[in-house]
Design a protein that fits this description.
By secondary structure, the chain is mainly alpha-helical. The chain folds into two domains: 237 residues, no CATH class; 225 residues, no CATH class.
Amino acid sequence: MFWKVSFKQDFGTAIRNIGSFIVFGSFAVGAFYFSNFVTAYLLENVKIGLFLFHRFIGMLLFVFFITINLGNMVVSFSTLYRSPEMSFLLSSPVSFLNIFIIKFLDNFFYSSGTLFMVGFSVLLGYGSYFDLPWHFYLVMMFGVLVPFMFLAACVAVIVLLVLMKLAAKINFRLLAAGIVLVYISQIYFYFKVSSPVHLVQEVMKYYPNVDLYFGMLDPLAIKLLPNFWVSEIMYFYVTNNFLSVVQYTSLLILSTAGLFVVALAVANGVFYSTWITSLSIKSLTVRSLELKNTFFSFGKRSWFSPQTEVLLKKELWQFLREPSQWIHFSVMMALLIVFLMSVSSLSIKLESPELKAVVYLVVFVFNIFLINSIALRFGFPMVSLEGNAYWSIRSAPISASTMYWIKFSSVMIFLVVLSIVIAWLSNIPYLYAQKVINQFPLPSSFVEPHPSIKILAYYSIIVTPIITATLVSINVGLGSVYSNFIEKNPIRIASSQGATMTFLLSVVYLVIILGVYYLPTTMMFVSASKNSVVNWSILSIVFLIITVPSFFIIGISHLLGIRSLRRDY
């Protein structure tokens, strides 16, 4: 879906196509080996067992499902209700239901190409470790992964249609706030009910028999979710229980087909009327922005220079004028807050220092991955959002580099501050004394983290903003290189081929950081468990290995980004 080969006979296009092929191919190979390595490491070195391993996969799939669901909801809102193209299509002699189906499928396939590629590469690595038969890959790709993603998209569009129907009677901002609260609540209750720490503690009571099936530990509510079905399919494939594989696969396919029919029925009944409703919502949004008279409005001066002031104000109002921007941003921030509240109070009571190190690394990388997701979604499209009005900036007495640095700074300052807050909150259990509840009649006590763990936490807080600045530079710089002034939808820009390549390069960078960071993390947790002496010089070496290439990547990204702005429009 993302692989587009241009037939223009010029050297630049050929180089770009070759580069795309190298990046996509290299990432696919890297994802294969990484999946194979992680599977082998967790099962052979950490020895978490098949049941825990597949339950962790199920939790990742839950996050994956929510991500696809939210992404499709925001994309569908933009393409079905905010796109000028819809006015033309709905005035043509074509059934509005057919238009809905075409746009819905277009959104799904347009935003799912990379996920298919990554999913297939990961499944190859997973399957090669267990030496699974050839039909595993066919079943998982087309009978499990595709229906699973399509199910998330169907849920998204049904919720969107219902919200737009309610928007005729209820304030749209209240509805948006309500849907944010609903998603926050379901994520909170999911991890509250299926606590990974509690699950690990219960399964480890049966060590070394951790490969047994501990289905009695699964809450009933979790068994009704599609991510649980997928994890069960994978587990039963490994344990050669093909009857259960067929049962869960059939359940997933039938549920997806049924929900698609429901989506079509809802669209047939309310899509056209909700589109009419969206016109009034749009006019209200525009009018409310025009009436604002705040410190950062164009009618008031600030302490910035005139050029900087007008560009900063333009970036702010360009962001606020598009509901899909601030709605998506609000949802991502709300989910981030829920995650940080959970992590900041996390108390990991595990015996294995290697498993503690793995949990710490997962949280560390997930924090940075969230930052990268925000940078890709809002930083990459910034240059492209100038659209056809880009000529006015090029003809204005403002240098292209000034515009670039203001765009970059507005994203970087916010995300660097946010990354420091995230790093500090996620390291609270490793920085401060934790309350331990003892058995009666012993009173509660406080356990101070080991000094080596404290140093690792401070080290992570220092390194995180450096990595964040690098990721923002990659996204804004390559967003300028792959700018598209024709596409007006910021979500589709962030899902384009150039954005996909940027995302893959960012993931490669994160994997390298993870590999480098693994050694000091494991060393610190082993030192804490054995109360041994730590070789502190390793931290200095790792810090240089991370920072020096990062600053080099920052410089290259900005050089390419500024240079691309000077090309002929």
